[in-house]
Amino acid sequence: MSIVAPQERKHLSADALFHVVRSGFANIPDPRGEHGDISFTDALMSAFAMFSLKAPSLLAFDKERAEGNLHTIYGIERVPCDTHMREILDPVSPKWLRPVFKSVFGQLQRGKALEEMVFLDGHSLLALDGTGYFSSQTIHCASCLPKVHRNGSITYFHQMLGAAIIHPDLRAVIPLMPEPIVRHDGTAKNDGERNAAKRFIAKLRQDHPHLKFIVTEDSLSSNAPHIETLHAHGLHYILGVKAGDHPSLFQQVEAAEHAGRVTYDARHDRAVGVEHRLRFVNDVPLHASNADVRVHCIEYWERGAHKVQHFSWVTDLRVSKRNVYHLLRGGRARWKIENETCNTLKNQGYHFAHTYGHGTQHLSVVCATIMMLAFLVDQTQQLCCALFRAVWAKLGSKRLLWERMRALFYDYALRSMRHLLETLFYGLKKLQPLWAVDSS
Ligand SMILES: [Zn+2]
Question: How far is the CA of 313 from the centre of ligand 1 (A)?
Answer without folding.
Answer: 35
